[in-house]
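Aim 2, interim progress: modelling of the S-adenosylmethionine-bound target.
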Amino acid sequence: MSASGGSNKKSPFKYSSDIHDELKTDLQKIQINGTCIEESEVEKKLDNLYKWICSTPKNTTYRVNLLKTTTEQVIQHLNNVIAQQYANRLPTITTFPHLSEVIIVHCWDKSIKLELLKHSNEVIVDATCGSAILRGSHVFAPGILGMPHGLNIGDTVSVFADTTGSCKKGLLKTREVENKMFLGNGILKQTRENLFYNDGQIKSGIAIHMTEVISRLPQLNADSVPDGWALLQNLPSILCTLILNPQPGEIILDMCSAPGNKSTHISALMNGEGILVALEKNKSKLEKLKINCDKFSSGNVKIFCYDSTKACDKHMDTECVNINDGPPFKENSFDRILLDSPCSALGQRPQLLNKITVAQLRSYVALQRKLFSAAVQLLKPNGLLVYSTCTITIAENEETFNTKGYIVNGLTKEESEYILRIGPEEDTVGFFIACFTKQIV
Ligand SMILES: C[S@@+](CC[C@H](N)C(=O)[O-])C[C@H]1O[C@@H](n2cnc3c(N)ncnc32)[C@H](O)[C@@H]1O
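Predicted structure of the complex, ligand included:
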């Protein structure tokens, strides 16, 4: 094991040179005009990738639920919320001319002065919580690792992330921690006694209300807009559903659906007409999926707890099948299918610390191929399938549907048009979207 992913440069894989080697091998599959790219080019690509995933996107995106409200109304509401919270310091909010349901809240530019002086009261949060803060979240109780004695509710504190994964829960001497990353300042809402007192209860709720953060984004969350009006959703996730292009009256399958961010969007684009079957294997995620469907008035969604790799029964009696009865389904049942696959999530930004092992990274591939194969069987001839992941490896993306291992640069021009890879050129999260139609030969 060595630090910094095999080199001394910036990387979230601080303790695993194995991951660096694995990603290198993955990138070595890239060919340009039939020739593999040079070793130096691979290293350069990896450096860019690491820098990018360690950094924070400079905007927050919302998807507006056009069934309940309008984009203008959500912008007006957000402006009021931000004006109140930040004494009229309004960020720029923009929209896309052709994506009517997308709102982009930009970070404050450098002309706006933020109060980012470090205070003597230091609180340490874990790396996951740190990423969420940088993207505009307040600090929730489970994310806090360390806090000194004597801090009171209402005190101003400086918040740091443990980017080494070495701090123990309940840590007192927060000022002595080395290699912590300063994130910003906030107001304490829960005391140390409350957070770490072991009464058997899981601690919840906002523990620090962030006021200024180094990413310069306003702290916005699901509660910043009225219930069901809009959802915080990364642009690639919104695009994914738009590429699926759901139509009212169709029969559509969302194979990996919880927590329902895309299911609610698909249902809205269907205008609630037709059937959207939402499958999810993990029982503990169903409640959240149901709540989201209710919140977003997704009336045509039929939710089933089911393993989608087993969702197709080739031997099913074709006479007695009703989609509403749930899985398994017969072959050729759906007009469109979204396979938003479980993945290694290496496209998430920012990543302050990532402890994924090579075994974990490799473990997704077999599942992704099984899910893809089930999707192809379940799709009607001429039906449309969208395969997506929020990760960046070739093994989990292009190779899922072509075991020969060709990649974007090796595809024909026509084939490439059906693939969208979102990487370091874009200031959003890393994502992969591939779109297929089923042809019977
Ligand atoms: C990337 S997440 C889906 C996110 C979701 N599409 C959204 O936009 O809100 C993948 C989901 O697939 C679920 N999953 C994993 N294996 C599965 C399987 N074999 N069948 C169905 N769901 C599965 C996971 O529990 C997880 O909730």
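The longest helix spans residues 358-378. The pocket of S-adenosylmethionine is lined by residues 237, 255-262, 279-282, 285, 307-309, 340, 342 (CB under 6 Å).
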